[in-house]
Inverse folding.
C-alpha cells in the first residue's frame, strides 16, 4: 500500500506544485491520475520515488517511510518502484537487452553491470518479459531502431524486471497513436493484474483513463478535486478538473469504445510494424 | 515591430525610423574606420619591399625546385616521430580530459562551488597556451626530444578535448538519466548506463578531430627542438638549402592529407 500524507512540493521558483496531498493506493489497484498540464501529475509521481524531493509531508510504501531515507536506502527503495516514461526514456544507443537489464542495476554491483555480466536469472527473466510483450526477436536491436510502441514495451520490461510492488507511469501514451495507446494501456493493466501490482498512471486522455483504470483521481493546481470510480466522471466533474468545455461528447463515447474488440496481446504483425 | 495606423490601413515596417538611422550611422562609421586604418597602414609600409615581393617570391620558388628527392631517406624517421608525437599526445590528452570533462559539466560535477571552477581553470590554462609555447617550456625543462613534444601536444589538447566533451555532457537527454536513476542504480552505474552511451559518439569524434589537428601541430614542434620533422625544417632553413625545405613542405602536406583522410574515415565509421 502506498500512502501519501500532507505531501507538498514547492519548487525553487516559488511555484507550489502540490498542496497537502493525501492519497492512498491499496495493493493491486490501478489508479489513473488526470488533470490539465501543470496540475502537478508528474511532480506527484516523481515525489514518490524522489526523483523530485518533496518539500514536506510523507510518502510511505508498505512499512518504509520513503521521504526520510538516506541515499543508499533510497536506492534500495527505488528498486521496488518501476517507472515508465512519456517519451519512453530508453537509453537510445544501448541495445534492447541492455535497456531491459538496466532495470536490474539496483541489484547488481557496479563491475558486474560495467562488464554486462548480469546473473543468468536476470537474463532469463529479461527474455521472458520480452517474449511476453512480443519483442523477443528484437533483443539485439539498438533501442533507436524501434518504433514508438515497441520502445514503450521495452520501457515496460525495464520497469517490470525490477520486480516492483508499484508502477509509476508518466503519460505512457502521449507519443503514441490511438491504437498503440490502447494496446499499451491494456498491456500495462494486464501485467498489473498478473503480478498484483498497484500503479499510478498519469494520463491526459480521459477516455483511456476511464477505459482502463479502476479508480480516477483528478488533480487541479496541485490539489485533489476528484477521487472516485471512472463511472462517476460526469461533465460537471470534468469541468471542475479541467475547466469549462463541452464534455458531453467525451463521456458519451465511453460506452461505444468499451465494446470495441481490440487485440490485447500484441501479435507478431504489430511487433514488426 | 513598429506598426503605424494610417486611416484604415496598418503600415508595418521592419524597424522604426530611429533604429534605422542608428544602423545607417553604424555602417557609415565602419566604413570610415576601415578607410582610416588603410591610410595608417600604407603610411607605415615601405613600398619598395612590397613592389619587390613578386620577384623575391619567384626567386625563392626558383631555388626550391626541384625538391631534393634524395633527402627523403633522411625524412622517414622524423615523419614517423611526428605521427607518434601526435598520437601519443592525443591519447594522453583524451585519457585525462575524460574525467576532467565530467568534473566540469554542470550536470555531473560533484560540486559546482569547488570542483567545477578547478576543472574549468585546468581547461582554460591548457587552452590558453599554444603547443609551441608548451614545447618551448618543456624542452627547457626536459631537454630536447620526442618526449617533450608528446607532453606539449598532450597539455594543449587536454583543454580542447575536455571543453568540447563537457559541452556534450551538458547537452545530454536528462530523461534517459532519470530513467536509469529510477531503477535504483548507483552514481557510477548512472554514469555508465545513462550518460556515457549518450556522449560516446561526441567523444570519439572529438578525439579523432584533435588527433588530426595534432598531426599538423607536431610537424612544427621540431622548430623549438621537441622532435619530429620540424627539426629538419629548421636546420634546412638555417643552412639555406631550399630544395630540402620544399621537399619537407611536400612531405608535411602529404602527411596532413593522409591524416585528414584517416580521421574522416574513422569519424564516419563511429557516428
Amino acid at each position: 500500500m502506498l500512502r501519501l500524507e500532507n505531501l507538498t512540493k514547492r519548487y525553487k521558483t516559488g511555484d507550489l506544485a502540490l498542496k497537502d496531498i493525501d492519497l492512498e493506493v491499496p495493493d493491486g489497484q490501478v489508479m489513473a491520475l488526470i488533470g490539465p498540464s501543470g496540475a502537478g501529475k508528474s511532480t506527484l509521481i516523481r515525489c514518490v520515488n524522489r526523483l523530485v524531493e518533496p518539500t514536506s509531508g510523507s510518502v510511505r510504501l508498505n512499512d518504509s517511510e520513503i521521504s526520510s531515507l538516506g541515499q543508499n536506502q533510497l536506492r534500495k527503495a527505488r528498486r521496488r518502484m518501476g517507472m515508465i516514461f512519456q517519451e519512453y526514456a530508453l537509453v537510445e544507443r544501448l541495445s534492447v537487452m541492455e535497456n531491459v537489464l538496466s532495470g536490474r542495476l539496483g541489484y547488481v554491483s557496479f563491475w558486474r553491470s560495467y562488464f554486462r555480466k548480469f546473473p543468468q536469472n536476470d537474463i532469463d527473466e529479461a527474455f521472458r518479459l520480452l517474449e511476453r510483450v512480443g519483442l523477443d526477436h528484437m533483443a539485439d536491436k539498438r533501442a533507436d531502431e524501434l518504433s514508438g510502441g515497441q520502445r514503450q514495451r521495452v520501457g515496460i520490461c525495464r520497469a517490470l524486471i525490477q520486480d516492483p510492488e508499484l508502477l509509476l507511469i508518466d503519460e505512457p501514451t502521449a507519443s503514441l497513436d490511438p491504437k498503440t495507446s490502447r494496446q499499451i494501456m491494456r498491456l500495462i493493466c494486464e501485467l498489473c493484474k498478473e503480478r498484483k501490482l498497484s500503479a499510478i498512471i498519469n494520463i491526459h486522455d480521459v477516455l483511456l483513463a476511464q477505459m482502463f483504470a479502476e479508480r480516477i483521481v483528478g488533480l487541479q493546481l496541485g490539489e485533489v478535486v476528484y477521487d472516485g470510480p471512472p463511472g462517476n466522471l460526469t461533465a460537471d466533474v470534468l469541468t471542475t478538473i479541467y475547466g469549462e468545455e463541452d464534455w458531453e461528447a467525451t463521456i458519451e463515447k465511453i460506452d461505444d469504445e468499451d465494446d470495441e474488440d481490440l487485440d490485447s496481446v500484441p501479435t507478431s504483425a504489430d511487433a514488426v510494424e | 515591430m513598429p506598426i503605424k495606423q494610417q486611416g484604415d490601413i496598418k503600415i508595418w515596417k521592419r524597424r522604426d525610423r530611429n533604429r534605422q538611422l542608428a544602423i545607417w550611422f553604424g555602417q557609415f562609421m565602419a566604413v570610415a574606420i576601415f578607410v582610416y586604418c588603410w591610410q595608417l597602414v600604407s603610411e607605415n609600409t615601405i613600398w619598395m619591399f612590397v613592389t619587390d615581393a613578386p620577384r623575391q617570391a619567384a626567386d625563392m620558388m626558383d631555388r626550391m625546385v626541384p625538391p631534393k628527392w634524395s633527402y627523403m631517406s633522411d625524412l622517414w624517421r622524423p615523419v614517423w616521430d611526428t605521427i607518434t608525437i601526435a598520437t601519443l599526445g592525443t591519447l594522453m590528452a583524451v585519457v585525462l580530459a575524460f574525467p576532467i570533462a565530467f568534473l566540469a559539466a554542470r550536470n555531473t560535477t560533484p560540486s559546482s562551488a569547488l570542483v567545477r571552477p578547478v576543472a574549468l581553470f585546468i581547461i582554460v590554462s591548457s587552452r590558453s597556451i599554444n603547443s609551441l609555447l608548451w614545447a618551448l617550456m618543456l624542452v627547457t625543462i626536459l631537454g630536447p626530444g620526442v618526449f617533450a613534444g608528446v607532453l606539449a601536444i598532450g597539455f594543449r589538447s587536454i583543454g580542447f578535448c575536455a571543453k568540447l566533451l563537457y559541452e556534450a555532457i551538458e547537452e545530454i537527454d536528462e530523461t534517459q538519466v532519470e530513467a536509469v536513476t529510477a531503477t535504483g542504480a548507483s552514481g557510477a552505474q548512472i554514469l555508465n548506463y545513462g550518460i556515457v552511451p549518450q556522449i560516446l559518439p561526441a567523444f570519439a569524434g572529438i578525439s579523432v578531430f584533435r588527433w588530426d589537428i595534432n598531426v599538423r601541430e607536431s610537424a612544427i614542434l621540431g622548430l623549438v627542438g621537441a622532435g619530429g620533422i620540424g627539426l629538419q625544417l629548421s636546420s634546412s632553413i638555417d643552412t639555406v638549402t631550399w630544395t630540402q625545405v620544399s621537399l619537407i613542405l611536400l612531405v608535411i602536406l602529404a602527411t596532413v592529407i593522409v591524416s585528414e583522410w584517416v580521421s574522416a574515415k574513422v569519424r564516419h565509421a563511429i557516428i
Q: What stands out?
A: Residues 6 and 20 of chain A are 4 Å apart (CA to CA).
